[in-house]
Amino acid sequence: MGPAEDTDVSLTEAQIERYSRHIILPEVGGRGQERLLASRVLLVGAGGLGSPAGLYLAAAGVGTIGIVDADRVDLSNLQRQIIHSTGDVGRLKVESAAARINALNPDVQVRTYPQRLTAATALPILGEYDFVIDGTDSFASKFLVADACHFTGKPYAHAGILRFDGQMLTVLPGQTACYRCVFRQPPPAGVVPSCSQAGVLGVLAGVLGTLQATEALKFLLGEGRLLTDRMLVYSALDLCFREVPLQRNPRCPLCGGTPRITELRDELQPACAAPRGIAP
User: Fold this and answer.
1) Is 181 domain-assigned?
2) Does residue 106 lie in a domain region?
3) pTM here?
4) What would the pLDDT profile of 45-71 be if each residue is shown by its tens digit?
5) 3-class secondary-structure state, position 169
6) Strands 109-113 and 64-68: what pairing?
7) Does residue 206 contact residue 52 with C-beta atoms inside 8 Å?
């Protein structure tokens, strides 16, 4: 896709005012804003990563946002999961997130899936969307999202956070290095601590989740250089970003020349996201 055109747009006066700071950007314009309003993004997880991603995608005018999450809001979530409020404690996260998005932007249609994404449910859900945000917090879920996106051909932005460090990667299935090109399988149980064990700086989730939303918007608009074939690693303590170049692995069990993974399956190993340095 190229830069959006400003001719023959059908935005309402209220929408022109709401999205005016987008519309004056040559790379967006009225056409690009219409494209966003016609687009569909799926958030897998309404937690630390999904919260800022969901809010910024809604504010940007992405027309349909799907949210998959089986959990309820816990008081300990509120240190980083900014889409929820104190009054939402005990409420389903998908309901809380949907209410916040609808309050922010009534243009957005929110589809909620109050369930855990599984091999049995992933393909039909992902098939309805243009882009996927991986906001999960376990190895099992991250590998499932990566595999499901591969089988449905859906581009996605992966991110992982732990303590003061985060990482992210955007994947265009069949074209760029995938998650399994880098991490072939979940690590053994007990090797990587969970967020509840090791902790996580709340604002770290905001940085990575916002970057995931940025990748989604760039993809939908067809603008800029996506974070493909490179891993972005972020240290909050050093306030430092670095890139690790990646290549498609010809022996990748998912997207390689002779793949061993030919159907969607559930991984059994639960754990949390990235430890310090390069890890899932």
Assistant:
1) yes
2) yes
3) 0.91
4) 999 999 999 999 999 999 999 999 999
5) strand
6) parallel
7) yes
